[in-house]
Amino acid sequence: MLKIFQYGEYIFYLYPNDGDESVHVHVIDKKKSPNSPKFWMTKNGNAILANSRVTFSNYEIEKMIDTISANSDLIIKQWKKYFKDITYYC
């Protein structure tokens, strides 16, 4: 797990073997489960929920999306640092 940042109870991170996919970020909430939702990044810096293996409320998902979008520059910078190449979901 490559931690990018933490915001409140959420930790935003990358998996070291995800570099062959489009840029995305995983989020973990230690209160819920070690499983994490995955969010694709778009070219304009927005986030789209790719999947969620645990049940989060709509409010929690929206909070994650807002936080990812607000920190998209940092996420993309870290993606490039670890994986060099970058493609976007859309």
Q: Would you mind describing this structure in some detail?
A:
Helix content is 28%, strand content 29%. With 90 residues, the chain is α+β, with helices and mostly antiparallel strands. It has one domain. It has a 5-stranded antiparallel β-sheet, covered by helices on one side. The longest helix has 13 residues, at 58-70. It is globular and about 35 Å long. 20% of the residues are buried. This is DUF4160 domain-containing protein.
Short description:
By secondary structure, this protein is an alpha+beta fold. The chain has helices at 58-70, 72-83, and strands at residues 2-7, 10-14, 24-29, 38-41, 47-51. It has one domain.
What proportion of the residues form beta strands (DSSP E)?
A: 25-35%
Helical percent range? 25-40%
Low-confidence stretches: none
Distance N to C terminus: 25 Å
Radius of gyration: 12 Å
Keywords:
DUF4160 domain-containing protein; globular; alpha+beta; 29% strand
SSE diagram, text form:
Layout (H helix, E strand, L loop, with lengths): L1 E6 L2 E5 L9 E6 L8 E4 L5 E5 L6 H13 L1 H12 L7
Antiparallel strand pairs: 1-2, 2-3, 3-4, 4-5
